[in-house]
Amino acid sequence: MNILRASTHKKILISVALFLLSLFSHNVLAAKALLPISSEVPAGNSLPIDGIWVIEALNKRVLIEQGRAIAVDPWVHAFVWEIEPDMVVQKDLVRVNNGEYKGYDLPLLGELQATLLNNGKLKYHVKGALGPISFLLRPAELTDNQWFEKELASIGSIVPPQPPIGIRPVPMPEPDPVIIPFPKDKTPFPYPIANDFTPGCGGEGQALCNNKPAIRKSKAQKLGCPGKRSHFSARNGGECWSCPKGYKRTAQFINSKKACAVKFIKGPYKRAKYQRSVWGCPKGQFHVLKGGGSCMACPKGYKRVQVAGVDTLTCDIPNKYQCDGPLKPAKLPPLDNPLANLLGSRKVKVCGIKKDIIKQAAIDLKNTAQLYYYARKLHKQLTSGSAAALYVYKGLQSKQWSNVVTALKKMENYKKLVKIAKQSKSKSITIGLGGDVQLIVGSNTEFGIAVNTNGTGRIKPYNSTGFSKGIAAGADLGIVVGVWRANSNQLDGPAQGIAASVGVGAKSGGATVWYSYYSRGTRGQEYLGFSIAGSVGFGFEIGEYNEVWTQYL
Q1: Along the 553 residues of the chain, how does pLDDT read in single tens digits?
Q2: Which residues pair with 294 in a beta bridge?
Q3: C-alpha to C-alpha distance for 440 and 434, rounded to whole angstroms
Q4: Long-range contacts, 217-220 (Cβ 8 Å, 24+)
Q5: Cα dist. 345→173, 178, 305 in Å?
């Protein structure tokens, strides 16, 4: 996203970025956090919310107990600090009113306020050292369910008799779970795959075919090369070859056309015939020391994997066989590790019909050139520094959503954009503040409002967070204008975007074009809309890949 003038918000954006990285980065090397353990922090009074809770964005558990929040699972905070079990992450938790609590957050270095919601979750707001941060906790196993139900009742929540609201056992998180996006009984992809040697993987909606263990065929026997007419070759760790009767071995390579000759110099020549491995294994098998000498083989289509000449006892499949027929690896939403797609992980991909969204983005943006032109005019007006533009900016900044809509409706460029959007069957428009922070990868955040182009429905405040690959940006907030195919109440969830340019005379410029992920119903990468955070130039790279998750505030 583009760099604009709101330098006073650097702390807020950096804080958000650090928090995001702390949420999403749990498989990196980090230093041990300088936090006390539970025995070093005095216990306070018991609370109705005492028990085990799950930080939703992290999927990590904490134990709230007598005024303290204690880590149950490990995680990495701010890409740097490793928080270990039994470390105290919050202290001085006290109840200040019905469903309201306060305390101090140690990793974020700030006072916190926690509010119990009607759905049983806790909404935290922390005034951190680098700016405010909000996040949710859901209950997993409470110390006193009846006390918790009374606390819910005190805020007007209706508590069902069984089970208590919001109480769901949460299993111990496991790293890198295998994604199974579709049930096994789904109709297989219609492309016929003759003699499929990778059943259970590689089909549409199925995981990519991956490494498999080597198969032990037999104990190695008859080591060495048999007979005087058998010739040793160092190929593939040691092989035995023989020349036809009446022929002798030459100095040529064992697999060459002149490997054998009647007369050493004059010929005639013939090829040598492969006999077996010097280790006593038939062709297509290889020897390992396991079990006193064993003959191993890879499944059909797989290749033996060696590291520095040593067998790993695993077999890899060539990339062309990872998916069946014309299918290609297609990206899924990175639900468990938001960096997975950026890092190329196979575990967030399935086999499907893959579109080249880099090429498609340029086509789709060109096809919406008129709509893009009016969106860019509105964006230019909102970043002009005029009194009306500043009013919208401050309204977004302070989250006075109705003031923002009132100001927009007075702008001719906004009216024209709404009109053209309706004609092009675009159902909603978003106006927000967004920005980037360059750390290990680019992290981005945006918040604002979504409104329907037909004037129906309520204003939908939203927040989007995510990561970018290949980004070159600063840490300022700027205006973002988006135009979308879906209604304002259908914009939440994951999306992937590609920075693209359009060159149509006065309508030239750049934007991020957004697509859905792969799904069996749509077969993936459907066009969702585009957003403008600036023109092509500094901080904007054609082909830059973005992934975001949007939720309503």
Answers
A1: 333 333 434 444 444 444 444 444 433 345 788 899 988 899 999 999 999 999 988 888 899 999 999 988 888 877 667 888 889 999 999 999 999 999 999 988 899 999 999 888 999 999 887 778 888 999 988 888 889 989 998 888 754 433 333 333 333 333 333 322 323 334 344 444 555 667 778 877 788 887 888 888 888 777 778 777 888 887 877 788 999 988 988 888 998 999 999 887 777 899 999 887 777 777 778 877 777 778 888 887 788 877 666 677 888 888 777 888 778 887 777 665 555 455 555 566 778 776 777 788 878 877 888 888 899 899 989 988 888 888 999 999 899 999 999 999 999 999 999 999 998 889 999 999 876 544 444 567 889 999 999 988 889 999 988 776 654 434 345 789 999 999 999 998 888 888 765 544 433 456 888 888 876 555 557 889 998 875 433 333 445 677 888 889 8
A2: 219, 288
A3: 19
A4: 217/281, 217/282, 217/285, 217/294, 217/295, 217/296, 217/297, 218/294, 218/295, 219/291, 219/292, 219/293, 219/294, 219/295, 220/279, 220/280, 220/281, 220/287, 220/293, 220/294, 220/295
A5: 19, 11, 20
Could you count the other beta carbons within 10 Å of the beta carbon of residue 541? 17
Q: Has this prediction a pTM greater than 0.90? A: no
Phi then psi for residue 76, to 5 deg, are: -105, 125
Is the separation of the CB atoms in 209 and 317 below 8 Å?
yes
Token match 């994604």: residue?
A: 179
CB 376 within 8 A of CB 413: no
Q: Give, in order, the Cα–Cα distances in Å from 448 to each of 91, 383, 403.
A: 33, 15, 12
Cis peptide before 318 (omega within 30 of 0): no
Q: How many residues does the structure list for the chain? A: 553
Domains of the chain: residue spans and CATH = 33-154 (2.40.128), 212-316 (no CATH), 357-552 (no CATH)
Q: What is the rounded CA–CA span in Å between residue 536 and residue 483?
A: 18
What are the two backbone dihedrals, phi and then psi, of residue 540, each rounded to the nearest 5 degrees?
-130, 125
DSSP string covering 176-207:
SPPP--S-TTSPPPSS--TT-S-TTSSSBTSB
Nearest to 440 by CA among 6, 80, 84, 56: 80
Q: How many other C-beta atoms are found inside a 10 Å radius of the C-beta of residue 378? A: 24
